[in-house]
Records
---
Amino acid sequence: MVNIVILAIESSCDDTSAAVIYDAKILANLTASQAVHQQWGGVVPELASRAHQINIVPVVDAALKKANVSMRDLRAVAFTRGPGLIGSLLVGVSFAKAFALALDIPLIEVNHMQAHVMAHFIDNRPGFPFLCLTVSGGHTQLVLVRDYLDMEVVGETLDDAAGEAFDKTAKLLGLPYPGGPLIDRYAAEGNPERFTFPEPQTSDFDFSFSGLKTSVLYFLQKEMKRNPMFVTENLPDLCAAIQRTIVNILIKKITRAALHFGVREVALAGGVSANRELRNRFAQLGSEMGWKTHIPPLEYCTDNAAMIAMAAHYKYLKGEFCGQDTEPLARYEIRSST
Ligand code: KG4
Ligand code: ZN
């Protein structure tokens, strides 16, 4: 080992996170989440940027202390360049640049989506090639992973992300934001067969979730006209049906892509991988097909700086540094780096 100590910053959405990695081992991973968005039913970009501004110094400070690392030990500073909210990204990018300039150490820019995949290497070693489904409030992406930084997006959502589908349908049911975990909770007591919602027909490995939201809306409008208590009386069954539809779509696409690309290892990443039905069906799929399945601990599935640090470690090994003129990118495609 070569004593690579890196400080990593994640600020792409509403979590301000800092991590310290030492020779590919995470020493600290601390996140300040922003409760301020809950009352608005979704992330408010302006409020997110302001909260990052307040949180970033204490979070970095606490991460260095927890890791027992001083600023002088750091070999590089890594940051999320994108994709994400531009105002949120700017806080992390500017902080990282100032930090690197003051310490005279290199900067490493990291693609947030690539980092979600790299979270798999924190406590685990999936075998290459594998297929990773990254599902969160902002993304739904199927990634074919050939090597640590060599990955290709083979499918993604054409409209809403899977987490967004959970949150938006939950809102229609009168549930607070974020509704995904609540749908999961109510669905556990419901019958998924009582109601059915159509699954979209999308080509190859792409996803679409906006039709589900619309069909749930029309269905509820129709039923509520007949019985204003319809949602209250049927909440667990409605949640179970919505969850079943979303999970069906995800599992079908993973299966189709894994068979097409001939991979024997499949992985989940992102906050939606906390969903119990998805986890169960994913494990079942693995045992039926003889595929190895991987899901990182939840701390590394939701947005976090440890995954940024892990991506940065491999970029450091390849000498992939960036300049002070690097700008954040609201849209940032994963590109194979080999
Ligand atoms: O990765 P994440 O923490 O943040 C980003 O969106 O980047 O993911 C949050 C998303 C939200 O849409 C939330 O509703 C969803 O993940 N989620 C869940 C569950 N836990 C979180 N969706 C369904 N079931 C869950 N148990
Ligand atoms: Zn994310």
Note: The chain has two domains: 5-118+303-317, 127-295.
---
Amino acid sequence: MVDLSLTGRNGEFDKMMPLRGSQPIYLDHHATTPVDPRVASVVMHAMTGAFGNANSIDHAFGEAAGTLIAGASEEVAALVGSAPEYVYFTSGSTEAIGLALVHAIFQGRRSPLRVALTRVEHRAVIDAVAKATRSGQVRPYWIDVDARGRLSPDSLQAALDTGIDLVCLMAANNEVGNIYSVAEIALQIRRSGAKMMVDATQAAGKIPVHARDWEIDYLVVSAHKLYGPKGVGALISPVRDLWSQISDLVWASEGTPNVPGIAGFGEACRLRRIEMDEDESRIAALRDRLQSQLTASIPDMAVNGDLSCRLSGNLHISLPGVPNDALTARLRRKVAISTGSACTSGAHGPSHVLQAMGLSEEHQEGALRIGVGKFNTEDEIDRAAKEIVAAVDAVKASMSGEVR
Ligand code: PLP
């Protein structure tokens, strides 16, 4: 049994996660993060101690659950620079994105709503916009990025000049890890009068986010990307009565809140707020260590994305001539890395992000996303580097007819 009352930091993680030693090295933190054991202990408490229905106003159990939710709203808001009354809990970012879009469409000035989005947005945004486009409620405007996935102010301005109602922009990319300068972009968008939805799913808890100062209309976050539980996230918006407006639009009334998930989300945000800076600089050092070991052994390896402005844990590489699925097949039981985002990797399609960046077919086919997280150790990084290099050599050898 794992003792969930332990409250140690990273060093104690091994003791609290008994399976870890026998598992592959986890380097896929963009897909999801392991739950911090301190978060798990809060979830456990909400399930077994404060298990009341937060809507039960007649007794102490309901009150205790309500208190957990109120505390979580404070913590989520504090992490992203907003106010607790603007936090609406959802089942994750995908749901929050859909609700924000529905709200923007129905409160918008015109129909169809003109929505600008970058070509590197997450599938959750692209699919929501595509569905609304098919039903005639949205007219999309695609914003191009350059070969490193960067967005130029001129291409954004060209979009805004066509008369845009809503801009969807990710704060950080889930494949190549680029961080977008939301503060500056938000100013540009404000001047045009358009509204702004920021997908901060990969950014929150890793880089500072200031929803209020940036005057963001809709901000989206998800607990499982910041060492919290899966199935809980939030839509954060200063729009008055947003929730009642949305529930009218989607014919839903408020159900029983997911108190354990929400309480865990709050605790995950609290920990990130306190520990983010220290953890992220450690993570960046581990990422750099891995990058230099791989570069030293694989001279033709390319590192993709905006190297001057990417998430600390992100290492996105291309190994020309080495099919990424052959490599992940060899590494499957040793190192957990991925060929693309969690959603596209199951679908066997080329990554829309790498296509938008104009990467050659060879670089797309040999692309790998590596995501370092706060529980990784130097020893794991060194072992992972060796395993990856050995797998690359083996794939190259088998392709040239040698047997290994
Ligand atoms: N947006 C980005 C940038 C993501 O990386 C993800 C998840 O991979 C999502 C949205 C969807 O988040 P969720 O899993 O909470 O629905």
Note: Residues 92-94, 122, 124, 170, 174, 199, 201-202, 222, 233, 342 surround pyridoxal-5'-phosphate (CB under 6 Å).
---
Amino acid sequence: MANVAVIGSQWGDEGKGKIVDWLSSRADVVVRFQGGHNAGHTLVIDGKVYKLHLLPSGIVRQGKISIIGNGTVIDPWALVKEMDSVRAQGVELTPENLKIAENAPLILPIHSALDAAAEAARGNRAIGTTGRGIGPAYEDKIARRSLRVCDLEYPEVVQQKLERMMFHHNALLRGFGAEEMSADDIFDQLMDVRDKILPYMAVTWKILADAHKAGKRILFEGAQGMMLDVDHGTYPYVTSSNMAAGQAATGAGVAPDAVGYVLGITKAYTTRVGAGPFPTEQDNDVGQFLGERGHEFGTTTGRKRRCGWFDAVAVRQAIKLGGIKGVALTKLDVLDGLDEIKVCTAYELDGEVIDYLPASQVKQAAVKPVYETIKGWSETSAGARSWAELPAAAVKYVKYIEELIGTPVTLLSTSPERDDTILMHDPFEV
Ligand code: IMP
């Protein structure tokens, strides 16, 4: 029986929440494997809206195990707040259905302070981070300074590690001209929150190994998107984790062959939040149209998203790098009513046509999209639940995208509602 990993194939915000929720009905375990509460996954179920940031999307369904894997970074206060807010919406959370990796690193108040100080220091080259401390928390992990969930059991370890960490970071804050922070204050705050986290701590790699062995279906839930991958994205305008399918294995704690089918969530056009290269951006009426029709505001920060045409070059690259086998195409209905639609099929750089996005930030800023224009449709595709209900030109658009990216569209989403989905192949059965 196959497992499925869901990853974003653009700059995030592709509509992963809905697809993961939809797929989680077929899964037994749902695991987040990278990122933190910088993510925002919106689920709409029977008209009720759930906004999740770190909790796996499986949490809103009964009888599933949701795991926050070791590859994530966890802000314990934000997590407790999120847990309280979904509980208030009637979702049951217990140590039986929510498990937090004992080896996941924590995001502390110092990390958000450093995120803000570093962004301010970057001036007009700021990345436009979500300000959640994600980058500095991953830096600490790699520098072997992190406090991890398992440390919360031992106050003396917390104290010791905090002192070492703050010795380092206060020197940085002084350098930035920012106010220093006290290890004792952070210690007290951690001692206040730990009893709300520790009951959920678990040996998650083992739970996953047992589930896999027992033939249970595992759904790996990615956040952000391949173009924000710290290795393969538009560096340095990226987040601080990897999104490729290999990370699903490392960040959940399973063998690579347990990851299974990789489904790339892909919006029928393109958006990005924050700064950085965006070859097909439409800073004009088209961008305005897409932003308004698509409600393109960040779930986490409320920022207006930049909008543009579909970029087949970027998605093709994401498919190859991410190990994507099939695509879930989302928000097709946003294109309803456009007379014509452009699709970027290649880039032009210094008079040459190229079929990939180079790594250099100079080249990334210089590439010009080469467009094909295709006919739009005036009928509505919103809410379609079968191919037959789609306007003929919309079907043609989907087929054209499939051809350009060389990968089948296995799922099509035509509204935020769970059931407005057209299934070509069930990823769990492929
Ligand atoms: P960070 O992850 O907060 O460090 O932000 C780094 C970059 O990634 C910024 O451009 C953010 O806007 C972007 N980013 C982070 N998380 C998401 C997400 O879930 N969706 C879209 N963009 C994101």
Note: The first strand starts at residue 4 and ends at 8.
